[in-house]
Amino acid sequence: MAETEVAAPENGAAMKALLGVEFKILGSDLIAAYEKMDKGYKMLVLPVNQHNNNGITIDKLLQDIDTLMGKTHEPGKIDGNELTDQLKSALPSTVSLEKLLIKLKTAYLYINSEDGKEAKVEYAFSLDIVTEGVLPEGIEMVDVKRLSVSVWNTEREKILQLMSLQSIDTYLEG
């Protein structure tokens, strides 16, 4: 096969390209972009509409896994119905698994990769697990309404504000 060389425009600028996609994960609307540059690439994932996140129940999540896996029921394959049964059998019968709601509250990923240099990677992810109504009514000893897990390494103030990510020090300072 013959090698073909594409000549750069007279101004010396190389081709650039941008690819974008809108998608949803765990009820959160996201956008992603990939940009090819002269000497590397950039990738970005951001939430689009954080107020429109209804989340997904554990039951629905497991149904989706079962559907995506083709309901094969073959050994070694993931079976959503089997996972549901195992989860329910592992929990006391008074716990309502159907009311457990998972929300991807925050998703931010930024990668800047230049040829010959180590890629810069920034991220911020936050997951909410809404547990309100999971325990039977009338239990006053303990009632957990929501669990939240967040991990991030970005220092960009705009991203931290947009995604309501705060450290304990931030709460204590003001």
Which key terms come to mind for this protein?
single chain, 174 residues, 7-stranded antiparallel sheet, extended
Instruction: Report the structural category.
Output: alpha+beta
Radius of gyration in whole Å, from Cα? 22 Å
Average pLDDT reading: 80
The count of domains is 1
Name the helicity range: 10-25%
Count of individual beta strands? 7
Distance between the termini: 66 Å
Q: What's the overall geometry?
A: extended
List low-pLDDT spans.
Answer: none
The description of the largest β-sheet is: 7 strands, antiparallel
Query: Which series of helices and strands comes N to C?
Result: EEEEHHEEEHH
What fraction of residues sit in β-strands? 35-45%
What's the topology here?
Blueprint: E1 17-25, E2 28-37, E3 40-47, E4 56-57, H1 58-68, H2 80-90, E5 101-114, E6 120-130, E7 146-152, H3 157-162, H4 168-173
Antiparallel strand pairs: 1-2, 2-3, 3-5, 4-5, 5-6, 6-7
Helix pairs in contact: 1-2
